[in-house]
């Protein structure tokens, strides 16, 4: 804690210079925050100092290269910067700018050619990457278009389904109302039938004349008529007999009696 506080105080003095240090609460949290700020500030100052030193070194190298070129011009061509034309000075400045842009150590062809080759390779790589990105972008656009079309179709389907549900719900409500009405009507008719039967029973009506009795008699009548059909056919076959008239009459009389018996049974029922 004491060591951090001393370092924070030293950092504040160096940072503020002649200005007084503003008062602050020297608790553990505040000291920790200021200590971290001091470390980051000193680290940044160290990086800046290294960068400045590097720039100074490069400036010295460029200055040395410039002096070397001046001496080379003087020795080989007996030219100085003052004797160069404006165009020549412009060309030299362009060479220097190119060397700075390519980050070469000098302006010789041995430095320019590899740098240009590297730059060309980077350019081709960037163009290839741009083509890949453009192809991917086109694929994404197609997928996006398909997704939007599908979304629109789904929205239309949802709207149609909702409309259909509204119609079906209305139909279901109508059926429910109809069923409710028919059920109530059926209950009312049953109640009326029961009341009518009770009134008929109270008035002394024969039970055989009720609806259920009449239905039963109708079913029995239909069954007897069905049984009479083969007997009628049998009687018709006897009417066609000619060899023995007496025997035929006997058979005819028997068939007639059976038919009369069935008819009487039908009438009695």
TrEMBL record:
<dbReference type="GO" id="GO:0005819">
    <property type="term" value="C:spindle"/>
</dbReference>
<protein>
    <submittedName>
        <fullName>HAUS augmin-like complex subunit 1 isoform X2</fullName>
    </submittedName>
</protein>
<dbReference type="GO" id="GO:0051225">
    <property type="term" value="P:spindle assembly"/>
</dbReference>
<feature type="coiled-coil region">
    <location>
        <begin position="116"/>
        <end position="150"/>
    </location>
</feature>
<dbReference type="GO" id="GO:0005829">
    <property type="term" value="C:cytosol"/>
</dbReference>
<keyword id="KW-0132">Cell division</keyword>
<keyword id="KW-0206">Cytoskeleton</keyword>
<comment type="similarity">
    <text>Belongs to the HAUS1 family.</text>
</comment>
<keyword id="KW-0131">Cell cycle</keyword>
<keyword id="KW-0963">Cytoplasm</keyword>
<dbReference type="InterPro" id="IPR026243">
    <property type="entry name" value="HAUS1"/>
</dbReference>
<dbReference type="GO" id="GO:0007098">
    <property type="term" value="P:centrosome cycle"/>
</dbReference>
<keyword id="KW-0493">Microtubule</keyword>
<dbReference type="Pfam" id="PF25762">
    <property type="entry name" value="HAUS1"/>
</dbReference>
<keyword id="KW-0175">Coiled coil</keyword>
<dbReference type="GO" id="GO:0051301">
    <property type="term" value="P:cell division"/>
</dbReference>
<dbReference type="GO" id="GO:0070652">
    <property type="term" value="C:HAUS complex"/>
</dbReference>
<keyword id="KW-0498">Mitosis</keyword>
<dbReference type="GO" id="GO:0005874">
    <property type="term" value="C:microtubule"/>
</dbReference>
């Amino acid at each position: 804690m004491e060591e951090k506080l001393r370092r924070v105080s030293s950092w504040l003095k160096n940072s503020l210079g002649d200005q007084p240090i503003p008062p602050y609460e020297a608790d553990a949290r505040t000291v920790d925050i200021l200590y971290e700020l001091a470390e980051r500030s000193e680290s940044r100052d160290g990086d800046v100092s290294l960068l400045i030193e590097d720039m100074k070194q490069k400036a010295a190298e460029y200055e040395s290269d410039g002096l070397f070129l001046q001496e080379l011009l003087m020795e080989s061509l007996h030219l100085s910067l003052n004797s160069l034309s404006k165009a020549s000075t412009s060309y030299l400045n362009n060479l220097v700018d190119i060397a700075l842009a390519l980050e070469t150590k000098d302006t010789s062809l041995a430095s320019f050619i590899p740098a240009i080759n590297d730059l060309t390779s980077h350019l081709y790589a960037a163009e290839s990457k741009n083509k890949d990105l453009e192809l991917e972008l086109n694929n994404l656009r197609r997928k996006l278009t398909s997704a939007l079309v599908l979304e629109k179709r789904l929205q239309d389907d949802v709207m149609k389904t909702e409309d259909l549900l509204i119609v079906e719900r209305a139909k279901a409500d109508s059926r429910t109302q109809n069923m409710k009405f028919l059920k109530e009507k059926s209950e009312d008719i049953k109640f009326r039938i029961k009341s009518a039967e009770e009134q008929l029973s109270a008035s002394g009506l024969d039970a055989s004349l009720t609806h259920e009795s009449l239905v039963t008699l109708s079913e029995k009548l239909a069954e007897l008529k069905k049984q009479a059909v083969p007997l009628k056919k049998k009687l018709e076959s006897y009417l066609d007999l000619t060899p023995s008239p007496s025997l035929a009459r006997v058979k005819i009389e028997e068939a007639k009696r059976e038919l009369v018996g069935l008819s009487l049974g039908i009438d009695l029922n």
